[in-house]
Amino acid sequence: MLAVETHQLTKDYETKDTFLRAVNNLNLKIEEAEIYSLLGPNGAGKTTSVRLLTGLLRPSEGGASVLGLDIVKNAQEIRGKVGLLTETPAIYERLTVRQNLEFIARLYNVPKKDIRHRIEEIIDLFDISEKIDLPAGSLSKGMKQKLAIARAMLHDPPVIFLDEPTASLAPESAKIVRDQILKLAKTEKRTFFICTHNLFEAERLSSRIGIINHGSLIAQGTPSELRELKKDETTTLFRFDQWSKEIKDYFETNKLEIVEMDTERKIISVIIPKIEQDTPGIIKELIHQNHSIVEVKHEFPTLEKIYLELVESESVPRENHEEEES
Amino acid sequence: MNWQRVWAMIRKDVIEFTKSKYVMSAIIGMPLLFAIIFPLTAIMPIAKIDPAEFESADFGQFINNLFSKAVSNWSSLDPQAQTLVMLAYSMFIVVLMLPIIIPAVTASETVVGEKERKTMEAVLASPMSESEIVLSKIISSFLPSVIGTLIAAIGYIVITDIIVYPFIGQLLFPDLISMVLVFIFSPMVSIISVELMIMISTRVTSVRDAYQLGSLIVLPLIMLVVAEMFGLLFQSTITMIAGIAILAVIIFILFKITANIFDRERALVKMV
User: Fold this and answer.
1) Which chain A residues are Cβ-neighbours of B7 within 8 angstroms?
2) Where do the structural domains in chain A lie, given as residue ranges?
3) Is A66 within 8 Å of A3 (Cβ atoms)?
4) Mean pLDDT in chain A?
5) Tens digit of each residue's pLDDT (9 = 90 or more) over A269-293
6) Architecture of the domain delimited by A4-228+308-313
């Protein structure tokens, strides 16, 4: 069974004067125990997608299921089975950390006898046990975020939606959260659906990444599959023992695009269109011309570069809408 | 209806109320003020006036009929004692308005306050049904108003009886009407007030807007309490029971309407 599946999922916001298609024909298939990240700029449709999948919003067209349950017909059941970290931590600042967690445990029907144990387990997991009896309002921004993540996972949901999970966390706290996500996906087969614009995080965590812009999914795949999309932009760096003008002449004569050249460091970066086929021949020819090669390495385009190019190529003005998304 | 979830929400709201000085001043401070200040500032001065200053007063047939039902020796009381009885009852009306006034604070705090503090999304994302959310918000807004009213009513009754007893030779309160008003009529009107406030709260985005609209809605309810206090509504036991039944039906209908108009999507999109 798929953890999440959408078919042409669409969400429109309409008022008297405005129309906005926030999510446009979204098609996703996310396996159980998968970590799927949805990347996109502000207002791309990430938060709306999560709200649709957690039964908070009704789709305008298309449909979706979570754990085999229809998001319209079984919305309440879905809400009980998934965990959700909302865009803002949404914690009760007047309540203590413990009271916040107890409240959520009761809302999600955690058996009374298990509540205490489960709270202790989750606060240890996210390193907030020292703050357990403090008012949540007195916590730092990062601690509040950790409390909100702990709350989303308190009832042991098989599918967890996290909207910008590490947005306000210090690097060490972000690492704790990432490690827990990886651990839970691997050892307890939890499925994670993460909305983020943190490319590093998406690449480190995700088995697959979707890139969304203007409500439409514009690319999807594993990090390496996404790199394949811009394979023709992979550069090959050559470093030589001695630099000579002939090196540059060789690449120019062979009509290879020079991306970077540094005569002091004795390096040159070029784009080789048929990279796998032609690289050995180029090396052979340079050696044949008595150039001593110290290093050759392919430099694949970064996910950031791929993301930015994809998003920029899709940039068309959006109609106004009062909802702001991250 | 999942009662564990409903009670969890009520418990959470009550804890939040106890940590808000603003809400606590409405729940505890206002009733105490009503219970102590009114008898001492409105009734006590009349008791202190020299009886000679009270000329023979004719309060009219309506007043005489009204209070002769409540005080057996009304016609034999001197004008000062009669004035004290009238004032004691009049001030009691204000105390009975508390269950209508307090929900304006608690209901707007618990619904619009959640929207303002952006905590509502966590509730909306939970497995609570719309009915469970509405019911829990009604109960958590209603409970403080009932507690506040009881505090105020008991305080008021004790202080007023202490002041008035020497003049009329009997305890003015508690009597049947006041008890029905405190324990049945006014809690029921309070629930109606809470339901109306929650209806408003689901449609507005700021606590201030909720107060402003709420204050308009509670006016007819206040008139209802005043009318009953002067015996204009429940003339007999049968009309009283019928009135209570009508209020119960109104409570049920308003609950259904509130639960139906409480829309998750609207609450969420309006919140952003």
Assistant:
1) 106
2) 4-228+308-313, 235-299
3) yes
4) 88
5) 999 888 888 899 999 999 999 899 9
6) 3-Layer(aba) Sandwich (3.40)
Residues on chain A bordering chain B, Cβ-to-Cβ distance under 8 angstroms: 13, 51, 54, 56-58, 76-77, 79-80, 84, 86-88, 90-95, 99, 103-104, 106-109, 135, 151, 322-324
Residue with tokens 């590490």: A166
**Is the minimum CB–CB distance between B56 and chain A shorter than 8 Å?**
no
Write down the domain spans for chain B: 3-271
Report the b/e string of B104-116 with b at 16+ CB within 10 A: bbbbbbbbbbbbb
Measuring CA to CA, how many Å separate A174 from each of A39, A89, A180? 18, 15, 10
CA distance B12 to chain A (A): 7
Q: Provide the 3-class DSSP secondary structure of residue B140.
A: helix
Residue A195 buriedness (CB in 10 A; 0-12 / 13-18 / 19+): buried
Question: Tens digit of pLDDT for each residue in A106-143?
Answer: 999 899 899 999 999 999 888 888 889 999 999 888 88
CB A209 within 8 A of CB A199: no
For B80, half-sphere exposure in the C-beta direction (CA atoms, 13 angstrom radius) is: 16
CA distance B200 to B196: 6
Q: In the numeric block, which tokens belong to residue A107?
A: 């809302």
Interface test with B, best of A81, A92, A96 (most B CBs within 10 A): A92
* Neighbour count for residue A247 (Cβ, 10 Å): 21
CA of A276 vs chain B CAs: smallest distance (Å): 50
**B1 contact A CB<8A:** no
**Residue predicted with more confidence, A24 or B221:** A24
CB-based contact A56 B119, cutoff 8 Å: no
Which chain A residues touch B124 with a CB distance below 8 Å? 56
Q: What percent of chain A has pLDDT over 90?
A: 51
Q: Which amino acid is at B103?
A: P
Q: Is A107's CB within 8 Å of B117's CB?
A: no
Q: How many CB pairs under 8 A join A and B?
A: 82
Strand segments (E) across chain A:
4-14, 19-30, 35-39, 61-66, 69-70, 82-85, 159-163, 191-196, 208-213, 216-221, 235-240, 257-262, 267-271, 293-299
CATH domain A235-299 topology: Alpha-Beta Plaits (3.30.70)
Residue pair A137/A129 in contact (Cβ under 8 Å)? The answer is no
Contacts of A324 in chain B (CB under 8 A): 272
pLDDT band at A262; cut points 50, 70, 90: very high
- The CA distance from B88 to the nearest CA of chain A, in Å, is 40
pLDDT in tens, B84-103: 888 888 788 778 778 888 88
* B7: amino acid identity, one letter: W
**Residue B122 forms contact with A (CB below 8 Å):** yes
Separation CA A250–CA A289 (nearest Å): 10
